[in-house]
Specification:
The protein is of the alpha+beta class and 353 residues long. It contains seven helices and 18 strands. Bound molecules: pyridoxal-5'-phosphate (PLP) and 2-OXO-4-methylpentanoic acid.
């Protein structure tokens, strides 16, 4: 791998006291090209613009997939990745579904580790803060026919991150629009999944909601996920999350919470979950907590859930009484190397590896 370091770091311009997600990017980026059936020209170089033909397939047919992961620091400024192999496997599941080439493990992992090692000063030091890492794969062939590209570029960039949502969320159960459908690409991190959610999310924002709670596209009676988060409901003393299917992105945070909660002695269930059960739980008080979880969001409580124009409030429990708070601390403690790592999730990044 070629490495071209920047001559002038931009880190002096980075305000670590006021981190805004996605506002500033670390000094370097990783790129690797797929051409003539082979991966080549892996390079780490200064973060900067890239140039492709205006008829590159990514611009017209949306052949693009991405990942989201984070690097954390502990008190001694050692650096840890969290379950990076899961992101590696998931980007390739997404690539496969979008008829894109598989990224070899050494390209993904060496590019990732070397890049984050070089840019380790960009990882914020405080608890709950991290460096958000965005690997992505795009189709770069310049032909206008609607067919899979021959050439691709795999890249990794990163941005310092603090809490993605700053407050408990007001959620609307969606009954008209859908983010995914059975047999489609909902289970992937295809760029187009996000583009298609922007319009219904803007409409929901205009009605005063922070996010949409997506339901199944054919009946709108089954709960799927919310915004960029998987969802959990603490209903009748069980922590329930909708069972992942081809409409739902199988989240690494969600999987981790399931393992943690089970280990902590909570009753957990991954199963089909209906809107009717949630509404009944809200009416009877049997639904004590609801929250979303994801790499960017970590764990975020829902404050209200709205259905057919009625807003239902979740109980206003003190932080220390919330399962969401308890599990978030457990997760962050593992990520920041403040507790044991019973599941082997942390990957320590060696210096100058
Ligand atoms: N669902 C969607 C649509 C997402 O974009 C994300 C974020 O990545 C998640 C769920 C949570 O996945 P993870 O925990 O792997 O970040
Ligand atoms: C993530 O949590 O990694 C996401 O993908 C969220 C992102 C779209 C901001």
């Amino acid at each position: 791998m070629k490495i071209e370091k920047t001559l002038q770091s931009r880190i002096v311009e980075m305000d670590f006291d006021h981190i805004v997600f996605g506002n500033q990017y670390s000094d370097h980026m990783f790129c690797s090209e797929f051409k003539n059936g082979e991966w080549k020209n892996s390079i780490i170089k200064p973060f900067g613009n890239i140039m492709f033909s205006p008829i590159s397939l990514v611009f017209h047919y949306g052949q693009a997939v991405f990942e989201g992961m984070k690097a954390y620091k502990d008190k001694n400024e050692e650096v840890f990745l969290f379950r990076p192999k899961e992101n590696f496997k998931r980007i390739n599941r997404s690539a496969n579904r979008l008829e894109m080439p598989i990224i070899p493990e050494d390209i993904f992992m060496n590019g990732l580790k070397k890049l984050i090692d070089i840019d380790r000063d960009w990882i914020p030091k405080n608890y709950g803060q991290s460096l958000y890492i965005r690997p992505f794969l795009i189709a770069t062939n310049g032909v206008l026919s609607a067919k899979p590209s021959q050439d691709y570029m795999f890249m990794i960039v990163s941005t310092p991150a603090d809490a993605y949502y700053k407050h408990p969320l007001k959620i609307k159960i969606e009954e008209k629009y859908s983010r995914s459908a059975s047999g489609g690409v909902g289970f992937t991190k295809a760029a187009g999944n996000y583009a298609s959610s922007f319009y219904p999310t803007r409409l929901a924002n205009e009605e005063g909601f922070d996010q949409i709670l997506w339901t199944d596209s054919s009946t709108h009676t089954m709960i799927e996920e919310s915004g960029t988060m998987n969802v959990f409901f603490y209903l009748k003393n069980k922590l329930i999350t909708p069972k992942a299917n081809d409409n739902i992105l199988s989240g690494i945070t969600c999987k981790s919470i399931l393992s943690l909660a089970e280990k902590e002695g909570f009753f957990v269930e991954e199963r089909n979950l209906s809107v009717a059960e949630i509404i009944e739980g809200l009416k009877t008080g049997n639904l004590k907590e609801a929250f979303g979880c994801g790499t960017a969001a970590v764990i975020n409580d829902f404050q209200t859930i709205s259905y057919k124009g009625n807003d239902f409030c979740l109980p206003n429990l003190a932080e220390e009484k919330r399962i969401s708070f308890y599990l978030k601390k457990k997760l962050l403690d593992i990520q920041h190397n403040l507790s044991d790592d019973p599941f082997g999730w942390r990957v320590k990044l060696k210096k100058n590896f």
